[in-house]
Design brief:
Layout: H1 7-11, H2 20-36, H3 51-65, H4 68-88, H5 93-118, H6 128-156, H7 163-185, H8 197-217, H9 230-239, H10 242-261, H11 272-320, E1 324-331, E2 334-341, H12 343-349, H13 353-356, H14 361-364, H15 370-382, E3 388-395, E4 401-412, E5 419-427, H16 429-443, H17 453-465, E6 471-479, H18 482-506, E7 514-519, E8 522-530, H19 533-548, E9 551-553, E10 556-558, E11 562-568, H20 575-591, E12 597-599, H21 602-623, E13 627-636, E14 642-653, E15 657-659, H22 665-670, H23 674-696, E16 702-706, H24 709-714, H25 717-728, E17 735-740, H26 749-760, E18 764-770, H27 775-779, E19 787-790, H28 792-795, H29 802-818, E20 821-824, H30 830-838, E21 843-844, E22 853-854, H31 855-863
Parallel strand pairs: 11-12, 14-16, 16-17, 17-18, 18-19, 19-20, 20-21
Antiparallel strand pairs: 1-2, 1-5, 3-4, 4-5, 6-8, 6-11, 7-8, 9-10, 13-14, 13-21, 13-22, 14-15
Helix pairs in contact: 2-3, 2-4, 3-4, 3-5, 3-7, 4-5, 5-6, 6-7, 7-10, 7-11, 8-9, 8-10, 9-11, 10-11, 23-25, 23-31
Length: 876
């Protein structure tokens, strides 16, 4: 336990605060008596006034207590004692009152300046700044009090004008020397006592101090030599603790005062005042030099300790962090060898620390993500304002792939040689495995492990879009009499049979083909690179032959027969349409006697005939403006308010009447007429939007306009939209362009720039038919999307098909995470509405709210004019 000389500090514990006033009063009285012993001949002014230092300490202590009453008490004590003691010593009362007032002003002003310059911790005197604050406070207080003391003494006691400089010097020196040494001495403890070799050095220093002062002060006429002893101050200030240095300064000061008063030493001058000034000036310099050196050394020592502790904390935090960390120096934009790694990184990579250090970070990263690592580092070097983060693959010591979420930051290297890279790697291998398992579960049949319908449609769509010179075909297969087989074999036997059938089918097709189980006993195959129906039928015959071989289920041989339908996809076919054609062909095979292959050729011929018939009529319809626009409201699910309207194209045929898009839109979109028709739709849609704005003002709904693939490929979408927008006078913020997932491959970089320009002007982009293909979820990040529209095929299954509910909830959760709005299409029942509201869907449209309406009836609906609303339902 530390033993300390600061008994005074412990005695002044808050619990013993009652002892503070008396202790300081006694000390002040003793100091005042000692000071009065040095009165100059014929004067009431003392040569030395240690009471100034005691008074400073008294007021400083009470100031620390935070009580103005305590400070006032200390000042009152100074006034009383400085009045009584001189009077008892024979001084006139009025002179004593001058001393009392001047000493109170001295203590108060010196403390105020000291605290102001030194700050709240100045009383600890731990740095040169505190020492200089004390010196300036001492001088300032002495100067201020000199206006009161010497000035009044010259009036009341006929003191010489020389009293003023003596007053300032003696008080400043008394405060500075006494307070500085006291504040340091009360902090002395056992650690300040020299030990070991330093003890002998201390003994030697004390001996030299005695000899040096003895030699200098034994002479009376060698004033310049007196400053040679300052070297001893440097010795004590640099080599020993601050407390020891303060003690040496105090002892040296006392020796100077005593020898000077005894008439010895280099400061013996003819004038007593000159002696006092020289001696006290020397003491002030001696104390200042000693303590400045000691405090500066202490400050540097604390900084060094702080740096060591900071480095130790960083090292400890780095090594024990619950996340993998590495540091590497970056030169020429490349991460160099690892200079530090922690135990978590060693566990993550399976490599010991000594092998990690010296390895480059890129050596730990899987080759497939080398470019990702490089892009991440380059981006961080360009903008260091925030840490960059991404997911990438690593290779562990066993050669296995592990996943990490990597966060990078760079800081300038202290040496100035480049920058230092800090990488944090969070192990997400388990999460990625779970995600892959969920993805596989969502896209594969749980019984057979084959792709399910969702994945089949996605791969079929991709194959159609990248078909090239060859074509894509589909086989749709249904096992004949499976119900009877399942009843004979039992449920487990039926499941085993389905698994074996899936394996047989997969063995008959190319590796690039996709075999899927659609549900029950239905399978489908996507065949890429076929030339026509003949190739497809050959594949189907191979499958039938493979299935004809007996399948042993639970020891029982089973012969499987299947009805197979085949269909060829056109370059612009929708995947679901091709599947329906193959399904229709399979139904024809069953109706024709089963165990056979049917090719659906007639749809191709019918499509060609229909196209040849409709194209001239569609060209006439454009010229005669037979096309009209209907609008279907999009409502806020929570409030029921119409917030948007989707415009839908209708054909008012002169003979056949109003035609829905199903009657003509596929032919129109496949023709060169679609670009002109799309421009017409833009103009008509924005005219309708202008009517809504005129009628409803700020409450007018935004307009959703469907964009075709031909419009995207034309490259004039932006120009056409801006022309129509200016003509109609509709703000760009009132416009939403609807694109479907199949449009994604059509958006080139130049078109993407145009679309982004439109968005910057206020227009928004909606992605329609979301969820109809697996790839549609991937397109969300590729397209500049603001709104997602959930396809009616999923909305229709809400409340009846758990898979549809899961998909809808998943899309809504993803949209919320991406900050996108959502519209649910095809809402027809109150149950669907209630579930969407429960799932926190934003908006919806469907027959439950309103059917598509012509422009005048739609406006009547929104403005509340019931007489104009239609009674019979209109075509979809």
């Amino acid at each position: 336990m530390k033993t300390t000389l600061s008994g005074l500090a412990r005695a002044l514990h808050p619990g013993r605060a009652i002892l503070v006033g008396p202790a300081f009063a006694v000390a002040f009285a003793v100091a005042a008596v000692l000071g009065r012993m040095t009165l100059l001949d014929g004067s009431q002014l003392a040569l030395v006034w240690p009471a100034a230092g005691v008074g400073f300490l008294w007021v400083l202590w009470e100031h620390r207590s935070g009580s103005y009453y305590a400070m006032a008490g200390a000042l009152a004590g100074i006034v009383v004692l400085t009045t009584v003691i001189p009077v008892l010593d024979g001084a006139p009362v009025r002179v004593a009152l001058v001393f009392a007032l001047a000493n109170a002003v001295l203590a108060l002003s010196a403390v105020v300046v000291f605290v102001w310059l030194g700050g709240s911790g100045a009383h600890r005197l731990e740095s040169p700044r505190h020492l200089w604050a004390l010196l300036l406070g001492s001088v300032a207080g002495s100067i201020v009090s000199g206006v009161v003391g010497p000035t009044l003494l010259m009036v009341f006691a006929q003191e010489s004008p020389a009293a003023y400089p003596l007053w300032v010097v003696r008080n400043a020196v008394s405060i500075f020397v006494l307070v500085a040494t006291t504040l340091r001495l009360v902090r002395v403890d056992c650690d300040d006592v020299p030990t070991g070799n330093l003890r002998w050095e201390f003994v030697a220093a004390c001996a030299v101090l005695v000899i040096g002062y003895g030699a200098v002060f034994a002479l009376n006429d060698t004033l310049p030599i007196s400053f040679a002893v300052l070297a001893l101050c440097v010795w004590f200030g640099l080599r020993f603790s601050t407390g020891v240095a303060a003690a040496s300064a105090l002892v040296s000061g006392l020796a100077v005062v005593l020898t000077t008063m005894a008439g010895r030493g280099p400061f013996i001058a003819d004038s007593v005042i000159a002696r006092g000034l020289l001696a006290q000036g020397f003491i002030a310099v001696l104390t200042l030099v000693t303590l400045v050196l000691a405090l500066q050394r202490d400050t540097q020592a604390r900084l060094a300790v702080g740096l060591v502790e900071s480095e130790e904390r960083f090292r400890s935090a780095f090594e024990t962090a619950p996340v993998s960390m590495l540091m590497s120096r970056v030169q020429d934009g490349t991460a160099g060898p690892i200079i530090r790694a922690n135990a978590d990184l060693a566990a993550f990579t399976g490599m010991p620390l000594h092998r990690l250090v010296g390895t480059t970070p890129l050596e730990l990263v899987d080759e497939r993500d080398h470019a990702t690592f490089g892009y991440l580092l380059a981006g961080q070097l360009e903008d260091r304002s925030s840490a960059a983060r991404t997911e990438m693959r690593f290779v562990d010591a066993a050669g296995d792939t592990v996943w990490g979420s990597v966060s990078m930051s760079t800081v300038p290297d202290p040496s100035g040689a480049g920058v230092t890279l800090l990488c944090l790697v969070e192990d997400i291998t388990a999460r990625k495995a779970a995600e892959e398992a969920l993805t596989r579960q969502a896209l594969h049949d749980q019984l057979t492990g084959l792709p399910n319908r969702t994945l089949l449609v996605d791969r079929l769509g991709r194959a159609i879009r990248s078909g090239g010179t060859t074509r894509v075909g589909v086989l749709y297969l249904d096992i004949d009499g499976f119900k009877g087989l399942n009843e004979t074999l039992g449920m487990s036997g039926g499941d085993d049979l389905l698994i074996r059938v899936g394996g047989r089918i997969a063995g008959c097709v190319a590796q690039s083909d996709t075999v899927a189980r659609l549900g029950g006993d239905e399978f489908a195959v996507v065949c890429e690179g076929v030339d026509g129906s003949t190739d497809l039928e050959a594949v189907a015959d191979r499958v039938r032959a493979a299935l004809a071989e007996p399948v042993h289920v639970a020891g029982t041989p089973v012969v499987v027969q299947a009805s197979i339908g085949v269909a060829l996809a056109e370059p612009d076919s929708h995947p679901e349409a091709v599947l329906r054609q193959a399904d229709h062909a399979m139904s024809n095979a069953k109706n024709s006697g089963r165990d056979r292959v049917e090719s659906l050729v007639w749809p191709e011929q019918a499509r060609a005939a229909r196209t040849a018939r409709l194209l001239p009529e569609l060209e006439r319809a454009l010229a005669e403006e037979q096309f009209e626009l209907f609008g279907q409201p999009v409502v806020d699910i929570a409030t029921g308010r119409t917030v948007a309207v989707e415009t839908l194209l209708r054909w008012n045929h002169p003979q056949r009447g109003l035609q829905s898009p199903a009657e003509f839109l596929d032919v129109l979109e496949a023709s060169s007429l679609m670009t002109e028709a799309g421009t017409r739709v833009l103009a008509l849609s924005l005219r309708m939007a202008r009517q809504w704005l005129d009628a409803l003002g700020p409450e007018a709904p935004v307009v959703h306009i469907n964009i075709s693939g031909k419009q995207l490929q034309s490259g004039h979408l932006s120009e056409a939209l801006r022309t129509a927008q200016v003509a109609a006078g509709v703000p760009m913020s009132q416009i939403v362009l609807e694109l479907t997932e199949t449009h994604a491959p059509l958006i080139a970089d130049s078109l993407l720039a145009d679309v982004n320009d439109l968005r910057r002007d206020g227009a928004r982009i909606a992605l329609d038919d979301l969820g109809t293909g697996y790839s549609s979820l991937m397109r969300i990040t590729e397209l500049p999307t603001d709104i997602l529209k959930i396809d009616r095929s999923f909305v229709s299954g809400l409340g009846t098909d758990p898979r549809c509910s899961a998909i809808v909830r998943g899309v809504l959760s993803m949209s919320q995470a991406l900050g996108l709005s959502v519209v649910a299409e095809g809402v027809e029942t109150q149950q669907q509405h209630d579930l969407l509201h429960e799932y926190q869907c934003d908006t919806a449209q469907g027959f439950l709210y309103a059917r598509p309406l012509p422009a005048d009836q739609l406006l009547a609906l929104m403005t509340g004019t019931p007489s104009l609303l239609p009674q019979p339902p209109l075509p979809r």
